[in-house]
Amino acid sequence: MTIRILKVDLKDRDVLDPVLQRAREDLSSTSSLVRPIIEDVEKKGDSALREYTRRFDGETPDSFVVDLKDLRPKIDSDLEAALRKAADNIRTFHQIQIPEDREILIHGNRLGIRHTPVESVSVYAPGGKALYPSTILMGVIPARLAGVENVQIVTPPQKGGLPDGLIAAAQIAGADRIILAGGAQGIAAVSYGTETIPASEFVIGPGNKFVTAAKVYLSGLGVIGIDSPAGPSEVLVIADDSANPVWVAADLLSQAEHGEDSVAILCTDSFSFAESVAAEVEKALSERPKRGEMKRKSIEDHGRIFVFPNLEDCFTFSNRFAPEHLEIQTKNFREDLKKIRHAGSVFLGNYSPVAMGDYISGTNHILPTAGAARIYSSLGVGTFLKRITWQEVSQNSLSELYPHVKALSEFEGLDEEHGTSVKIRT
After folding, report:
1. Among 267, 270, 333, 361, which lies 20 to 30 A Cα-Cα from 150?
2. Choosing from 260, 324, 342, 365, which is the catalytic residue?
3. Domain range summary for the chain, segments of one domain joined by +
4. Binding of Zn(2+): at which residues (predicted)?
5. CATH of 4-25+231-361, one of 1.10.443.10, 3.40.50.1980, 3.40.30.120, 3.30.530.20
């Protein structure tokens, strides 16, 4: 079989640990490669960007900045309808994420929270092996709902010109412009700005290891904010014998279709079900040959079927793995959702494949990978909002609370100015 079946329990560290510690991209070596590019673009602007674009993309556009107002893309009516429906669903779901400004009275003082958006965002849309207009919708729409005033797409120039599908997606999502620059040089250009390219405070979206390294490096310098470091796509499916093995096999392969380094794992408590899924994976690889070598290598290198003694162990492993995409195809999937602590996005029941979230259901597909779901959330409206706290202290409360300020400031050795700034007002 192409995909390995392994009977395990949670104590089998020699089998499970290499999977839990899946090859997180070693960004240190990549950072050393992108750093000179970033510094060059910072110093020389468009001239450096033009040189790197010619070197890495084989051509340079006449202008790096494309104003979307000037374009009239011609796309198939079915694709346009799909983009508009996806945009509507994404917008509707993300609207419920808009937080309210709140205030409260505590000891006579009025305290509150106010949310303000970042002012500018760049959404990276990869080129190369695949084009993702859906990523443009996922990045731009939440930013606009958050109130971001300036949103631009940054994407590598394509031979033959910018695809109409990407232009249409950018217009439907509500972006301001498209920047034709890819890789680390594109990230540097939108982070620092150039003579022609506006700078952004926040840069989001998936990309290759050079894009990721550039985002992480510039974020570490405090130049930009980012969503989360991106790695290979991954899915973990938890299924019992009530699931359909044909469907589960297709869901595993849908992630393998992203790239040779994609991760596809099934956790189950049924060995016979595991065998059925493995057989269906093999059958599907023969019947659906498109991207066949890529899918097969992904499944051979990074695909696993783990048969645990029980479903509880499956959920324990899943929380340790913290998958980007988690499918729960069990008899009691709604109850089982309560057991999940760490996951980018969860797909419940037999009729919820990851592809629905990738394209049309309305949740976001820009998600933390490589275990980052333990500390990061999916991209959403909150990604682009900052919380500002405020307080209005009353004169009476200041006098009543001063003794506590005095005690605390004296203990910290800051009573001379901290304590005095309160005392002189009593």
Report:
1. 361
2. 324
3. 4-25+231-361, 27-230, 393-424
4. 255, 258, 358, 418
5. 3.40.50.1980
Residues 71, 207 contacting (CB under 8 angstroms): no
292: amino acid identity, one letter: G
412 marked as binding residue: yes
Catalytic-labelled residue, pool 325, 327, 342, 365: 325
Tokens of 26: 């070693």
Lookup result for tokens 């003794």 = 403
Q: Encoding tokens for residue 139? A: 């990045």
Domains 4-25+231-361 and 27-230 belong to one CATH topology = yes
Cβ neighbours of residue 54 closer than 8 Å, sequence gap 6 or more? 60
Strands (E), 62-207: 65-67, 102-106, 109-117, 120-124, 150-155, 177-180, 202-204
- pLDDT-derived band at 290, boundaries 50, 70, 90: very high
Write down the pTM of the prediction.
0.93
Whether 310 has a binding-site annotation, put simply, is no
Active site (annotated) includes residue 325:
yes
Let me know: does 260 contact 298? Beta carbons within 8 Å: yes
- Check whether 185 is labelled as a binding-site residue: yes
pLDDT at 169 over 60: yes
- Does residue 324 have an active-site annotation? yes
pLDDT, residue 70, reads 81
